[in-house]
Amino acid sequence: MLDPRDWEAFRAAAHHALDDAVDFLRDVRERPAWREMPESAKERLREALPREPSEFSDVYRTFVEAILPYTGGNIHPRFFGWVQGTGTPSGAIAEMLAATMNANVGGRNHGAVYVERQVIDWSRELFGFPGEATGVLTTGASEANLVGVLVARTRALGSEVRERGLDPQRTHITGYASAATHGCVRRAFEIAGIGSEALRILPTDGRQRIDIAALQERIAADRAAGARPFLIVANAGTVDVGAIDPLDELASIARREGCHLHVDGAFGALAMLSSTLRERLKGIERADSIAFDFHKWAHAPYDVGCVLVRDGEAHRATFASEGPYLTRMTRGLASATPWFTDYVPELSRSFRALKVWFTLKEHGADRIAAAIERNVEQARRLGAAIDADARLELLAPVGLNVVCFRYRPQGLDEAALDAFNDELVIRVQESGIAVVSSTNIGGKRALRACFVNHRTTEDDIRVLLDGIRELGESLARERALG
Amino acid sequence: MLDPRDWEAFRAAAHHALDDAVDFLRDVRERPAWREMPESAKERLREALPREPSEFSDVYRTFVEAILPYTGGNIHPRFFGWVQGTGTPSGAIAEMLAATMNANVGGRNHGAVYVERQVIDWSRELFGFPGEATGVLTTGASEANLVGVLVARTRALGSEVRERGLDPQRTHITGYASAATHGCVRRAFEIAGIGSEALRILPTDGRQRIDIAALQERIAADRAAGARPFLIVANAGTVDVGAIDPLDELASIARREGCHLHVDGAFGALAMLSSTLRERLKGIERADSIAFDFHKWAHAPYDVGCVLVRDGEAHRATFASEGPYLTRMTRGLASATPWFTDYVPELSRSFRALKVWFTLKEHGADRIAAAIERNVEQARRLGAAIDADARLELLAPVGLNVVCFRYRPQGLDEAALDAFNDELVIRVQESGIAVVSSTNIGGKRALRACFVNHRTTEDDIRVLLDGIRELGESLARERALG
Asked: Measured between beta carbons, which residues in chain B are less than 8 angstroms from residue A46?
């Protein structure tokens, strides 16, 4: 038995851990946004596979001292580093409850299955998808995008592709996406055996949206060369700057060209929750599939994403399989088809739905939408403040919630500016004041501040700006620059 | 802000939830092994997407009343249905703590990364893999097997396959596995675009182990026909009966044939923890990759599996990608390469490692091994008891921890016996006494009892047997059989 020998001692230790967790989140603002895990903590983790048991409370002490302080920063109000959700205190309780039930949600007839179905129903409602559309929770948008690509593959080649595999000499399928598309779409083409060369990368306009004319030309050229265009991947919030492709126009092109339209809305798609932002996503309701994350702008703890597929039959035909151990019965625990394993690569699946259900029930769509709207407004204001500061240069228009800029001391060429700004990003992180990240915009190294954080206040933006100015000045002084 | 407005009220509600969770697990034995979720509970979940917020305690009440009672049964001591782990109370606390930190373990420099590295180190140690071998936690063995197949694909075709895609006219790669192999291996071939026809399914011997002669013949025939044999998938514990393929022999064949040897050890591989069972897995240390689950025989809560890859460079070459938002720095939060996202399909990844780390530290390998050994012994005893009962028929020798059998009233032909035993499985589940499942063994419908449960005692086996006899007799009476 791996249960506690003394339940009451375990209960006390668990309550202690819970108190620490609540304190840790309540006081998050008082700690640095990030601090490096010291060598002493790393050393404390290093050991051979433990053979003997330890008391839970001893293991917990090691956790509290050597692991807990060293978060990735994203729970902090001044984390702007990457597009990462903040999480919530009640999300952590939901995870404990899910692990208490320890459900395997691959299928069968139990409560967790009905919770996931409800979350999928809400998702369909949000995106205006019909009742026949299917959906399933995933680890995140990477897996959701892979599912979208595989379903599109099925629709183009028939489910026989599962047996026969790909054969470009028979049918050479080609997909289309902009240069601003997340690398996981490329990786999905690689995994699916289609090959990334068959994913045509189109240029973007000045606001990082796909170049429609180039897309149409490329589809025509591929068709003329004997290929079969099968998939257009549209972005609802690009990873680097938060750009939204013209979804409605892409839906029309996809329909005309007989292509599947998949929308990667990893973080941006949840702007649908907001009545003021929703119009920017016009056309998303016409997509053939949508991938998005609940662990980003809905702040469910990591990890949980979702994919919706309009053609539920194609979705099922892409994954459904049989096995004697998967026998469906008409009653009992092995009933209640359809099973989620028929819509996703996994069989064993955790009860991801519970944290989403708790989040949407407790906060409601309107409060989550208000947090999203606040982030968009914060990004706009930071962009304006940067524009007004001669030392700082905005490198891309603020489209949604991402601000890309650089510090610009006098007398540096482009290469030196790149190195200067990379060092500045590291110093901001090391200072613990805030976390920003680096990216490339039009060949220039940029500081990137992403607003996907429900804890950020106006004051945090001021602290961020002051910190960047101060650290930038001091770095410039160090290098004897103006 | 999605934080509590009143932290102390939230704290009290969270402590209340924790007490309920501890009670729920402590008293699990007093409840039925499974009960169907009633229509009233399902009805309570159905609602439109909530727009308004609710109190956490109100949401929690709905959870406790309408969801919590309806588990999939696997936490119960008399769950023998499928190969599912039991979970542990401390595993649930570890999940709460992981969600408190809310780490995204795709990469970068923070505590969660070092915990996952430690868990991978322990896994390498367990399987005798060298330090250059790489590993990564996955959602489970399905994903781990997919990674194994993709790495083997890279080793056979070079990493150019990522760009070019599959082209069977250039190189027709073929893989090999027994008929007892889990369907996720077939699904991996489908996803990877190789196609399941290229996975040659070999017959098994009387103990459900791969037929070695048939394997060698098929490899030779494929080679003669111009194919390139690239992968042998061996089982360490088949899903239906727990059979272990001759791993050492398969390792020699794989080496001779230039094939990658991937071991699907979803549950069986962790028998390596046991000094008495380890020898049955001889040869596993020679595998090129191993997939296994921590959520099965190590009882970490769902979901968490692992894949180890001997050729770390091929592993990296299969997944690693670049992106401006993935820029690696020499210091700060964007340092500490290698990053896990370079070894797995996902970028965003939850802190699965923490529950494994807690489990291995608290219980130690020896206590987990003792639970595994007890399960193997329990299966052996159940098999012997079935053998000694004229009403019951053992349908496969008990190789490890799975017992396949049927109830055999007089005067039924095979078709009627199948229907009788399917109904019996359902009645056992509906009675709440225990959960067993159905499978096919040599064309006969079987009751299947899997022992992957640290809560099961000798007494539970007696209750299971008595229940089956009683329900079997009553069903036979109903149908006026002997």
From this structure: 118, 121
Residues 6+ apart with CB under 8 A from B6: none
Alpha-carbon distance A342 to A107, whole Å?
9
DSSP run (H or E) holding B312: helix B312-319
The answer to whether B51 faces chain A, any CB pair under 8 Å, is yes
A172 has a chain B CB within 8 A of its CB: no
Whether B303 has its CB under 8 Å from any CB of chain A: the answer is: yes
Find where tokens 């990877």 sit: B192
Residues of A in Cβ contact (< 8 Å) with B5: none
Interface test with B, best of A37, A139, A404 (most B CBs within 10 A): A139
Chain B hits for A141, Cβ within 8 Å: 348
Does B349 contact A302 at a Cβ distance shorter than 8 Å? Answer: yes
| Cα(A437)–Cα(A444) distance, integer angstroms | 14
Complex prediction ipTM: 0.98
Chain B closest CA to A115's CA: distance in Å? 7
- Nearest Cα neighbor of B282 from B302, B295, B268 is B268
pLDDT digits (tens), chain A, 482 positions: 899 999 999 999 999 999 999 999 999 999 999 999 999 999 999 999 999 999 999 999 999 999 999 999 999 999 999 999 999 999 999 999 999 999 999 999 999 999 999 999 999 999 999 999 999 999 999 999 999 999 999 999 999 999 999 999 999 999 999 999 999 999 999 999 999 999 999 999 999 999 999 999 999 999 999 999 999 999 999 998 999 999 999 999 999 999 999 999 999 999 999 999 999 999 999 999 999 999 999 999 999 999 999 999 999 999 998 877 788 899 999 999 999 999 999 999 999 999 999 999 999 999 999 999 999 999 999 999 999 999 999 999 998 999 999 999 998 999 999 999 999 999 999 999 999 999 999 899 999 999 999 999 999 999 999 999 999 999 999 987 75
Cβ proximity of A307 and A136 under 8 Å = yes
- Residue pair A297/A368 in contact by the 8 Å Cβ criterion: yes
Q: What residue has token string 């249960």?
A: A3
A1 and B192 in contact by Cβ < 8 A?
no
Strand partners, A438: A447
CA distance linking residue A422 with residue B308, whole number of Å: 34
Look at residue A319 and give its three-state secondary structure.
helix
Read out DSSP for A14-43? HHHHHHHHHHHHHTGGGS-S--PPPHHHHH
With left for phi above 0 and alpha for psi between -120 and 50, is residue B69 left, alpha or beta? alpha
Rounded to an integer, what distance in angstroms lies between the CA atom of residue B336 and that of residue B117?
A: 11
Q: Is B169 on the interface with A (CB under 8 A)?
A: yes
Provide the sign of the torsion angle of the four alpha carbons A181, A187, A190, A193, taken in this order. Answer: negative
Return all residues near A231 (Cβ < 8 A) that are at least 6 apart: A149, A152, A153, A156, A173, A175, A176, A259, A260, A261, A262
Distances (CA, A) of B114 to A46, A171, A180, B266: 9, 45, 31, 24
Residue A137 has which token pair? 């929770």
Using the Cβ of A11 and the Cβ atoms of chain B, whether some distance falls under 8 Å is answered with yes
Go through the domains of chain A in sequence order and give each one's CATH number. Answer: 1-30+35-70 (1.20.1340), 103-350 (3.40.640.10), 364-478 (3.90.1150.170)
Task: Show which of residues 366-405 on chain B sit within 8 Å of chain A, judged by CB atoms.
Answer: 366-368, 371
